[in-house]
Amino acid sequence: MATKHEQILDHIRNLDIGYKISVRQMAKDLKVSDGTAYRAIKDAENQGFVSTIDRVGTIRIEKKDKGNIERLTYAEVVGIVDGQVLGGRKGLHKTLNRFLIGAMKLEAMMKYVDAGGLLIVGNRDKAQEYGLQAGAAVLITGGFDTRDEVKQLADQMEMPVISTSYDTFTVAEMINRAIYDQLIKKEILHVSDILIPLEHTNYLQTTDTVSDWYHMNKTTTHSRYPVVEQDLKVHGMVTAKDIIGKDDDISIEKIMTKQPMMVNETTSVASAAHNMIWEGIECLPVISSQKKLIGIITRQDVLKAMQMIQRQPQVGETIDDTVAEQIKDVSTQVESVYQFEVMPQMTNYLGSLSYGVVTTIVTTVGRRVLNKEKKGDLVVENVTLYFLKPVQIESKLLIKPRILEMSRRYGKVDVEMYHEGVAVGKAFLIVQFIDRY
Known about the structure:
Layout: H1 4-13, E1 20-21, H2 23-30, H3 34-47, E2 50-53, E3 57-60, H4 74-80, E4 84-87, E5 99-101, H5 106-109, E6 118-121, H6 125-133, E7 137-140, H7 148-157, E8 161-163, H8 168-184, E9 196-197, E10 204-205, H9 210-220, E11 225-228, E12 234-238, H10 240-243, H11 252-255, E13 257-258, E14 263-264, H12 269-279, E15 283-287, E16 293-298, H13 299-311, H14 319-325, E17 328-329, E18 338-341, H15 355-373, E19 377-388, E20 396-406, E21 410-419, E22 422-434
Parallel strand pairs: 5-6, 6-7, 7-8, 10-11, 14-15
Antiparallel strand pairs: 1-3, 2-3, 4-8, 9-16, 11-12, 12-13, 15-16, 17-18, 18-20, 19-22, 20-21, 21-22
C-alpha cells in the first residue's frame, strides 16, 4: 500500500496545470499533517511538476523534459530581466514558444505574433493589447507602465504583462543567452528524462507464475519484466531465458534473477548506457528513494538518447553573433574601416540604435583591428562611449577604429562611427591580451 507521502504526490500529479497549491488546504483535504503535506509538495517541486512563483504562490506546472528544456517559463523570464509583473500573474507558470521584438508597425507585426509567444515591445499600448489578444505574453522595455485596460486584459487572458528597465536589445540578449544556457544542459541527460513511467510499464509480482509470464508476453510481445512485491519494491527481473523449460505453475519468484541491477532517476544516461552495454542488459528497472519501481529504461531508449545528445547544438547563435554578422570589413590599405547596417531588433523603444548594440559594435571592431596586429586572445577591460547620436533602423554606418597604443599586455583603441559622412558615435576601448602557454 502506498505511503501518505506517495498518495500526496499522486494527488498533486493529478491536479490541473496552473492549480494553486496550499499546504494547509492539502493537509485538510487529505487528512494529513501540515508537515507531511509540506514535505510532499517540496518533493514535487524537486521533481519538477510544482513551482513556487514569487507573489503568486505554489502552483502545478507542466514537468519539463529534455525535449523542451530550452523553453523558458514566463516566471523565469521575470527573473532573467529583473522584471515587474503588471498583470496576468496566473499565466507565469506557462512556457513561451518564441519571442518577437515588436519594432515594426502594428499591421506588419500581426502576422508574426503567435499564441504562447512573448512580444517584446516598448511603450505601445495598442501593440500590447494585440499581443495579449493573440495569446502571447508582453514584455515592456524601458521601465514603462501600461494602461489599466491592458492589465485587466492580461488577467482575463491569464497571460503576463512584464515591465523591465532594460532596453529591447539587452532584454533579447538576456533571454537568448538563457535559452542557450539551458540548451547546453541537454548534454547531461538523466534517467528521469527517458524512463518509461510506471503506468506504461509491464511488471510481474512475486506471487505470479510462469503462466502469467506467457500471458503477458503474448499481450505485450516483450520478454523481460521487473518482479515486484505488492508494495512495488523490486525483487528481481525475469526474462525468456529464465522461463525456458519451466512448468506453467512454478512461481516467478523461484526462477527470477534476484538483486538485479537498478538505477534511479538521477543516474546519468551515459552511466546507464555503459552498464547496460557492459553487462549485456536490455532493460533496467528505475526505482525511487524508497526502492519502489517507478518505471523502466530499455537499451533502445538509452542508445536513442545518446544519439540525440550528439545532434544537439551545444552552442547557439547569440545576439552578439547576430550583430557581428552585420559588421563587414571594407578596409583599405590606408585605414581600417567596417560597415554596419542597423536591423529592427537592434533598436531601443524609440526606434534608434540601442546602447547595448553600440557597445557590441565597438568591442567587435576593436577585437578585429587588434587581431590584425597581434594574434591571440584578449579581454575587454573598459569601454567608454562618450558621444552618441540617434541612429535609425536600416541606417548604414561606417566604423573607423584606430589603434592608439599597443604593448605586450594592453591595447587602446579609439572608435568612430559615421552615418552619411556625419559622426554619430565615438568610443574608447581598453583591452588586455592573454598569453597562451
